[in-house]
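Escalation from tier 1.

The customer reports that the assembly of two entities below gives different structure tokens on two consecutive runs. Tier 1 could not reproduce it. I'm attaching the input and our single run for tier 2 to review.
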Amino acid sequence: MIKRCLVLVIALVLSGCEKEQKINAFVKGSFAEIQQQHQGKPYLIMFWSEDCAYCMKELELFGALLKTQSEFNLITVSTDSFLGEDKIRQKLASFKLQNVEAWVFAETYVETLYLDVDKRWRGELPLTFLFDSQNNKTKKSGLISEQVLENWLTKIAK
Amino acid sequence: MNKRHLIFALVFTLLCIAGFNVYQQTAQEQTASTEPVKILAAKSHKHSASGVVSIDVKYVNNTLHLLSGKIDQGKHSLWYQSSQDQGETWSDPINTTSGLDIQAKFHRGNDARLAVQGNNIVAVWMSKKEGAPHNAGPMMSVRSADGGQSWQLATMPADWDGPHGFFAMDGNEEQISLVWLDSREQVGKGSQGLRYSNSYDGGLTWSKNITLDQQTCACCWNTARFDNSGQFYVLYRDKNPSDMALGQVNQQQQWQRLNTVGEFNWDFEGCPHIGGGFAIGNKQNQFHTTVSTGHEQYLGVYYLNSIDQGRSWSVPIQLGESSAVHSDLAVDDNGNLIAAWDFISDSGFQVIYSESKDQGENWSEPQLLSGNDKGASHPRVIAMQDGFLILWTKKDVNGVHTLRTARINAGTAK
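Tier 1 run:
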């Protein structure tokens, strides 16, 4: 009985120690603020949707990459304003991305966020922005290739 | 220290550690909030859609047939209405899915579709399957044999039980033909194939499925029309590159991809969610399209026409600005054209239209249709006996979608 109680207490304590991934609300101005927050270190901002098969492939690619690379931060933004936070956590966790910074579109008229992010973005996905430590931005519309990623990683490693 | 004391001490220590963790977590969040970057919206982000989230419309023998897909308190349903006076008044809505528990996955850009063959009317839509990739399920279908008065669950046109979507359907006096996208044979990353089936008995039975194009865009709506001689044309977004293309299923059920419509050479591995509009002039037998591209150099919506049944196309004429996204068009019996499209403004999607009186050579100044509405998108255009009907949906701040319509008489635009 005592042993069981101990096991239960330890399990409760350990579960309390695990921090739940925070899902931030992405509104007008968030894109600029993310850039402000991360300047000085290379990072990627990736926009995705659960309905986008290419996005799933790209999330998978990033999940695998982050296992071996730690030189950059990944920030993910779900464009599904209707998606519950738990679903976003589950989806990201399925790609081992449970520890990355996560955001979700939180405006009623999500298309206004397209303009806020990029005047020439009309919602095509995936969309990825690569920033180096000098905050130089490279835009990649569509599935990012491993070659593009490798080139960027080589560049930021210099 | 006896065993009991030891256990008490251990539990106390663990609780202290847990308490410290909770304190540390709270402290980290407080620290984050005082840094230059603040989390702007603390309230829930979730915006659930409700109201009219899917529309399709056909004009057959001077009757407008309207199919509206609705979400009410999380429940999906499909409603049929008709109009004998070119959209001035509409019949009472009839719930085509009454008594059916439909878990649908329709939305603007992947709308439920209908087709008319005499008194037979068929509707199809994508079902929702929780846990499946993208929660996408097999198509479902209902049919009416009495001009839309009563509806029954109908045979599924697909002979493969995976998810199907992005339907386009049309009917004539002899048959109803349907195309859709599915991934029964995957060719390349994230692509789907364009499939076809037809029915000669108003949706009671369907032909063996034919693959028209093995590799297409996975998420763009298709548009399909019969011409007067019974040829079935499909406008769809191809792959490699992701430009639009037109193909034809002839009366012998043979497929031919006719040509690319707008050679922008948009090489895009992703999900554009944008199809096009297609209309056939009755008298001139001229084909008209609106297509959209995301190519950085040509971003926007374009009009093109063909005088040789889709084998070659005119030079694209841009409609609106680069912010134009979803479009449609129609041509009346006199060759007047109306094109409508939405564009992204600072306050959200808005709908505008333009008119051409010379077979698409020149277009009028675009006129705003959606007024002060926000989230007004995905216009559809129908040519009628007298004038045009433009339909679109708009969204209010609570995420409630509403159907809007406007009657436009040819020759009124400046």
